[in-house]
User: Which sequence fits this backbone?
């Protein structure tokens, strides 16, 4: 047990450093000058708007979580009428802790991001270097808060209960929040974006961030709630899920030694430390390329992780090299997935340029070529996940029974180890995006806007990479959740005195039944979210039209006349949450139905089908969205006819289709998959006891 | 063996009736008047163009088939150096027979369709009833030829070799042809359609079927080679595959009795007879609604099949009611899938109207809502396939080991039993579509064009239904192909003295590896086809521009000046075959790679992933394409602003995206899946012998 205690100490220490460093970075950001009154005013509006959304979101979540908590208390891990109530209480508390910690991290991230945006805008007056640093460090606070609280929470649950199964409750809590934050935030951000574009750019022909547009603040709020809070919650969720499933298996394998559990914590702690080092060292180099700065800090974090974990494996007893290999493979494949995503979405590479060129024949060809390349772009990542899972399995198989699946779980832990760095990169995007808008609204001049544009463009490219990474990591994680599900089911089956499952055979009709239905769910889920954006945007467009009609002087931009920004924020908020709930319920109800009809085996198939089609669609939609966005930017940079040309109009259509693809539906599929996986694990004992064909 | 001989006799008898009836219908069609010289001329151009394409296609196919035949001769069912050469010769001959019979059926279908189109155009002058009958009966010749030659071929192979495994060779032959006919024809038809629309409607503002447009004949040829020959080959392929896999299992279950084999043939023969009755009775009723006429003959065929098979099961020894139930469930679910497809694609139903309404906000919203409803529309069919497979399995499980999978195969046979009727309905579409064009080119007057329009619109609606049906049937068929693959692999494993497979466990990493990669293939395959259409259309647009530039008087429509239609047909032909081959090879090479890396288990997973994502994407693309097409028609009928409005422009964009979705990529996925399944079955002994991780 010595190694385990040492590792707990190291983990705790790295959490403390992470929090301390986050506080330092936050104070550093706040120390940066913010003087322009106009900018401060708008920035405060954005901050207030984001708070409005999050308060409402958390209120609805609280009700949902309350219902879920009562159900967990009664039913899980086993119905209270069947015996001990203590495990149920632990599970419930863990669930609530999962939602609360994730919510807290999101709240902190938003706070800092909305302070960093105005400072980055003013920093851009001084040049690329200081502005980059403000944007990046503002994002890093979110990254550190997420990973630190994740590690702290997992550690606390395990130290208090000594039962890794309780972590599934914690993980389910994180998933509940992620569903609201990512999918709700995704609907919010695209509602505002679409409505602002339709009324502003298309109808009135005013610039993107013109303050006359009542949706402009909502649009900027959307970037924060969608990309900062949403993406953070998504990766918090994946990270917790990866650790939870690895720890469930580790505990089963450990027997007395604790070496495997120690290894999971050790690697997670090293990942956090590596991210801290990477964040501390990130700078724009001499050539002044922010994309390169973001990428190279990711690569150096990766190298540091691989070296430090090798050192730990060398020094610590019971740490296996094969498992180290699995985690390294996971991380390397994650980075490769990121690079191939970049190939498909970077406007200096041929694919984006081809789509831009096709746009000359009209919007149908923008769409067709974008969908086609989006489909093709999903293959490398699918192959990458397949290869890393197979390699991790085969590497760890010789260690004994159960180790092969543990290897896959550790590949996921490895892939997610640098998640602190990934979130920092990702949260950088909306901060500098906001900064660009603020620079325009504050009238900081063309040169400053150019600097902000440069920073923003880097944010877009890196965002595609981190999204590919996040989806890949979620893919590997859910494979290990499948393993976690099977062990949960077997505990339930053993208690019920039924035959244990040894796997899920495709040729079993219940499994096949589950697979087909499971594969349909992500398609329907993402469709419901996209239709939700559409409906909600229509509501907001109506409100904008009303304001232009009823507020005298607004359209002309008369001095002192202000749009009612709050109304738009309220519409986006209410609509987002209203449209989200049916989609989430659909996924959960389908799971429950399949479970009660086909039993535990059908659920195994259901999860598989869900993972496979979910991965495919998530990769397709994220990448297609990214490539449309950048091919529009490529044309706006003066290619294929430039701004205002027919090709540009077609590219704008592509971008409008791509927006809900990449910011609402695509990345929300991740959370749909984890929610469904965890619901399955949590209800496994019920499915084992009662089902029609099981 | 008595029942088997009786059934052979009945099958042979029904094939004779089918052929005789086809000849009668063909002669009947030819007896209908064709007097308008202009129409005859154009119709002959279409006929010649279709022949050009098919000759080239068959030439390329012959080379491909030659290579495949040599490989089969050397390697299959087992390498010739390992023993008997006779089975390899049978397999090779069966393969060649499969390609030849399917090719012949396609040739006949095209011949009749290109004779029926001009007669239907002139028939439209007399009214709806006679024109409908010409269109429908012209299509029925194709339906009868396909199903008759399919049944005859399967019977001949089995009677000569007495070995159902040889049927896999026959089935592979049918699949090879289907790949060329469906995917190649699909690229051809959309190349011509897109190029004709872009240059004609968009650039010049001339009507759809204006003879000045050099692509107009190619466009009409495309309808025939894509929908008549292509769809026929696709359903020939599915039908053969369903029968082959059912017969492989039946033979293994039969022992001495032959009852199961008899049952397969008996049901197939009854399906053919039911289709003949349905075709003979099809008429437009008093209310004169052609859609209803097509649908009601489908329903009556379904009823006749269910009743006749019940009678056969009652009277014949060894016919099991449970298996009858499985086939009935398959057929009923097929019809239900057709009806739900109709719900999503019929312009009198809400979905199409919602998409039309969304088009008012611009093309991005046409696309977004169409994609969303397309995604949602895939779920009912997925659930239907899942439910029918589960029900068939559970129904037949009590009959003994192996019967459960046989039940699924019989559900597929049941679903495909009325395929004669389905093909007739489907081939009706392009005939009346052509007729509409001919009526316009021949100047037959507005009333005739209105009649032709009515017939055409019915063809569009029914096409969506038959496509849903075809995809559903293919889905069930490939499940049984998965079973066929497993028995093939086990024969090979037994010979190699290795452990037999009892199934494919998702938790096995090689299986999982295969699943992920298999799921990516249909996306890449369809993307390659769509990009191929795009590239090819650009070549044709360049040629059209050249003709307008170089042929004096063409643009103005000067008397006696003719476009060089052949050039466009040649471009479409060459391009289609050139773009198709990489996509087909990609799928086959991926199969071979996965097989040699992961072994037979990985291939099991690969097939599953391929089926699941293939079904999802095929349903999504076919339905989305159908709904865009019909929402454009709905707007053109005067809704949401009518023709020429912004909504109409947006709907045209949707339709242009939807065309390659529904006519190229979506339905070609079926053949990609069967090709991959059969390659896997054929190479199973190689994968069992040599693989990296297997």
Assistant:
């Amino acid at each position: 047990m010595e190694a385990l205690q040492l590792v707990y100490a190291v983990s705790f220490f790295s959490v403390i450093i992470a929090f301390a460093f986050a506080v330092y970075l936050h104070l550093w950001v706040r120390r940066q000058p913010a003087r322009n009154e106009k900018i401060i005013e708008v920035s405060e509006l954005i901050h207030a708007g984001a708070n409005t959304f999050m308060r409402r979101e958390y209120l609805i979540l609280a009700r949902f979580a309350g219902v879920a908590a009562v159900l967990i208390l009664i039913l899980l891990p086993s119905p209270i009428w069947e015996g001990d109530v203590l495990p149920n209480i632990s599970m419930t508390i863990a669930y609530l802790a999962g939602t609360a910690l994730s919510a807290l991290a999101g709240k902190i991230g938003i706070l800092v991001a909305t302070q960093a945006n105005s400072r980055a805008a003013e920093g851009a007056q001084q040049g690329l270097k200081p502005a980059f640093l403000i944007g990046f460090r503002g994002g890093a606070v979110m990254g550190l808060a997420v990973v630190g609280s994740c590690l702290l929470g997992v550690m606390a649950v395990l130290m208090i209960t000594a039962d890794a199964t309780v972590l599934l409750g914690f993980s389910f809590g994180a998933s509940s929040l992620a569903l609201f934050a990512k999918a709700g935030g995704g609907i919010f951000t695209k509602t505002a974006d679409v409505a602002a574009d339709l009324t502003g750019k298309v109808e009135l022909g005013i610039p993107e961030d013109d303050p006359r547009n009542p949706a402009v603040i909502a649009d900027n709020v959307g970037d924060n709630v969608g990309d900062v809070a949403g993406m953070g919650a998504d990766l918090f969720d994946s990270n917790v899920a990866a650790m939870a499933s690895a720890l469930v298996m580790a505990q089963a394998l450990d027997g007395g030694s604790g070496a495997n559990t120690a290894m999971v914590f050790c690697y997670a702690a090293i990942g956090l430390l590596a991210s801290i080092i990477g964040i501390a060292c990130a700078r724009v180099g001499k050539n002044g390329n922010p994309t390169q700065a973001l990428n190279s800090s990711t690569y150096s974090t990766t190298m540091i992780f691989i070296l430090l974990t090798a050192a730990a494996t060398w020094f610590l007893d019971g740490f296996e090299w094969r498992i180290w290999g699995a985690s390294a493979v996971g991380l390397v494949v994650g980075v490769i997935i990121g690079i191939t995503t970049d190939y498909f979405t970077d406007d200096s590479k041929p694919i984006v340029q081809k789509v831009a060129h096709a746009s000359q024949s009209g919007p149908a060809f923008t769409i067709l070529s974008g969908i086609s390349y989006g489909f093709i772009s999903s293959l490398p990542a699918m192959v990458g996940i397949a290869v890393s899972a197979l390699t991790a399995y085969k590497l760890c198989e010789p260690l004994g029974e159960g180790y092969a699946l543990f290897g896959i779980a550790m590949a996921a832990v490895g892939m997610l180890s640098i998640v602190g760095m990934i979130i920092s990169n990702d949260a950088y995007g909306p901060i500098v995006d906001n900064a660009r808008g603020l620079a325009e609204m504050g009238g900081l001049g063309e040169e400053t806007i150019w600097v902000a544009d440069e920073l923003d463009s880097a944010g877009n490219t890196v965002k595609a990479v981190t999204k590919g990474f996040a989806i890949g990591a979620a893919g590997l994680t859910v494979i290990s959740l499948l393993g976690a599900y099977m062990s949960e089911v077997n505990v339930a089956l053993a208690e019920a005195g039924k035959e244990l499952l040894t796997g899920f055979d495709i040729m079993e009709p219940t499994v096949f039944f589950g697979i087909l239905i499971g594969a349909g769910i992500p398609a329907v889920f993402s469709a419901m979210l996209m239709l939700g954006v559409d409906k909600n945007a229509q509501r907001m467009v109506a409100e904008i039209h009303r304001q232009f009609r009823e507020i005298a002087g607004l359209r002309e931009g008369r001095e002192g006349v202000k749009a009612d920004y709050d109304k738009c924020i309220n519409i986006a908020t209410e609509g987002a949450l209203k449209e989200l709930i049916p989609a989430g319920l659909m996924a959960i109800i389908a799971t429950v139905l399949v479970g009660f009809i086909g039993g535990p085996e059908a659920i195994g198939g259901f999860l598989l089908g869900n993972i496979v089609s979910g991965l495919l669609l998530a990769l397709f939609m994220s990448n297609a969205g990214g490539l449309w966005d950048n091919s529009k930017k490529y044309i706006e940079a003066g290619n294929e006819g430039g701004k205002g040309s027919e090709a540009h109009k077609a590219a704008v259509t592509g971008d409008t289709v791509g927006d809900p693809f990449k910011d609402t539906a695509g990345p929300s599929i991740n959370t749909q998959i984890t929610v469904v996986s965890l619901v399955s694990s949590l209800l496994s004992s019920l499915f084992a006891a009662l089902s029609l064909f099981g």
Remarks:
- Chain A touches chain B through 81 residues (CB under 8 Å).
- Chain A has one domain: 2-689.
